[in-house]
């Protein structure tokens, strides 16, 4: 089988229960390396782009969130990560990888669907870090259903409660304390742009996230606080074997010939968090493996 960064890499079909963990993946995901021309990989090359910055990252225990915490650490930022209690082991691994790069990583297990828990996370992050320069809204839930009649009202509500409401609660708690140059980065999805039919509730929340990003960006731009979204395509993370059926896993790829690794999405978060994107706000970036979508 081709390796993770080689064209043709296709993760083997497997099933995990939610919340799923990195250690249960049948093939390891890559969080801190990027592809080489010959299909191998090399360590991410940092350049001090986030020196002294402090970030709150939801869902920072695994997948894209873990890769963001590690690349942020390599670029000089400390993190505070929030995640579900069942994912403590993944969170401790993220913490230890951040610490290997000489940065701090504070952890808090909590259910972010509650506005009170979001406030506690925001308060704890400000207390531990001193200030939050970068809010990365990233935690999410999805579960495939083929038809609208298969989506229970409870699933519809749970998806919205997990995917968009905490983005609002956390931004509301933290943006008032932000300064010129600070940023909010919201993880959306390609599905908001392609209208994925078997993830209707999830796709709807991701559309809401894109619109939330645009509105909040327009609201905060005069203060110099930038707000942007990232819209990944298929990425090999624990979410996939826990929420996608066999056929969807067999087709889990992109025009470039494979799904992304979390590290390849985290680079976009580094760009949006740092000075390289200083003139960018209200935008959506599309690390989706080559699917052309409207902006
Ligand atoms: N994997 C993909 O193919 C893909 C594609 C597009 C977008 N995304 C987005 O990337 C983001 C990260 O997902 P991932 O693929 O890295 O998967 P993941 O399973 O590694 O991360 C999801 C995280 O959400 C957290 N979470 C879920 N419900 C929560 C709750 N109620 N309270 C607190 N935390 C909660 C979990 O702790 C977990 O860490 C999500 O927003 C997802 O929609 C993923």
UniProtKB/TrEMBL annotation:
Family to which the UniProt record says this protein belongs: Belongs to the short-chain dehydrogenases/reductases (SDR) family.
Domain of life according to the entry: Eukaryota
Keywords tagged on the record: NADP, Oxidoreductase
Region (Disordered): 1-22
InterPro entries, sorted: NAD(P)-bd_dom_sf, Sc_DH/Rdtase_CS, SDR_fam
Pfam families, sorted: adh_short_C2
Molecular function terms from GO: oxidoreductase activity, acting on CH-OH group of donors
Annotated protein name in UniProt: Uncharacterized protein
Coiled-coil spans in chain: none
The species this protein was found in: Exophiala viscosa
């Amino acid at each position: 089988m081709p390796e993770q960064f080689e064209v043709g890499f296709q993760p083997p079909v497997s099933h995990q229960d939610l919340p799923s963990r990195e250690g249960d993946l049948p093939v390891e995901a890559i969080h801190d390396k990027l592809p080489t021309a010959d299909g191998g990989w090399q360590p991410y090359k940092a350049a001090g782009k986030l020196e002294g910055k402090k970030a709150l990252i939801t869902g920072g225990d695994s997948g894209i969130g873990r890769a963001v915490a590690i690349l942020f650490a390599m670029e000089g930022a400390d993190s505070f990560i929030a995640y579900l209690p069942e994912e403590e082991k993944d969170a401790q691994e993220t913490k230890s990888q951040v610490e290997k790069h000489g940065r701090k990583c504070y952890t808090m297990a909590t259910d972010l669907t509650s506005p009170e828990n979001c406030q506690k996370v925001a308060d704890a992050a400000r207390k531990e870090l001193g200030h939050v320069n970068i809010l990365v809204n990233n935690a999410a839930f999805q579960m495939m259903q083929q038809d609208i009649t298969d989506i229970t009202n409870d699933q519809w509500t749970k998806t919205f409660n997990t995917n968009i409401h905490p983005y609002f609660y956390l931004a509301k708690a933290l943006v008032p304390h932000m300064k010129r140059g600070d940023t909010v980065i919201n993880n959306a999805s390609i599905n908001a742009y392609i209208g994925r039919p078997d993830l209707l509730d999830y796709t709807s929340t991701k559309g809401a996230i894109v619109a939330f990003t645009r509105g909040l960006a327009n609201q905060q731009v005069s203060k110099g606080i930038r707000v942007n979204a990232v819209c990944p395509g298929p990425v090999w993370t624990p979410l996939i074997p826990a929420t996608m059926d066999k056929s969807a896993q067999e087709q889990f790829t992109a025009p470039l010939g494979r799904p992304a690794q979390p590290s390849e999405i985290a680079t976009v978060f580094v760009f949006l968090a740092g000075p390289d994107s200083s003139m960018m706000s209200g935008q959506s970036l599309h690390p989706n493996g080559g699917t052309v979508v409207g902006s």
